[in-house]
Description:
Elements: H1 2-56, E1 61-64, E2 71-75, H2 83-86, E3 93-97, E4 116-120, E5 126-128, E6 137-138, E7 144-149, E8 154-157
Parallel strand pairs: 5-8
Antiparallel strand pairs: 1-7, 2-3, 2-6, 3-4, 7-8
Amino acid sequence: MKRGFLLAEETLKMILALISIGILAFLLFSIYGSREDAKDLELATESLNYLVQEIEVGATQVEIYNPEGWWLISWPYEEKRPEACSNLGWENCLCFIDKSYDSFGPDGYSEDSDDGVCLETSLRVLVVSDSEEQVPIKIVNPPLVLSIDRSEAIILRKS
């Protein structure tokens, strides 16, 4: 009788230990994930500052290295602006957004700017594809080389 009681007690201790380890592992991965997100946001902010500075000084080409997987988009996009731009009264702004491309379309568009960083530009520049249609550009395989055409007021991915 005493052996069965000890076995149940040890089993309960093992289950509680496994649950505790699981909770600790979850917390560790959560902290790591939030730290990576903060790092990407910081990289996006620095890259966007650099891009806007280069536009303001009249550069015709800019290399962007970070954050990989994010999207560069100009606003207004489809005549809408994210809250980060409209709340500050910005007419024109550039943003790095960490979203899927589908969320930029007219059906899935969101004015929520929590997934990125935006800066005002004095010149309204459009981020366009090769077809000269306003389309976000994704940073894939950095560096992303952007060509800035001030006469047309567009930013193109340089091939």
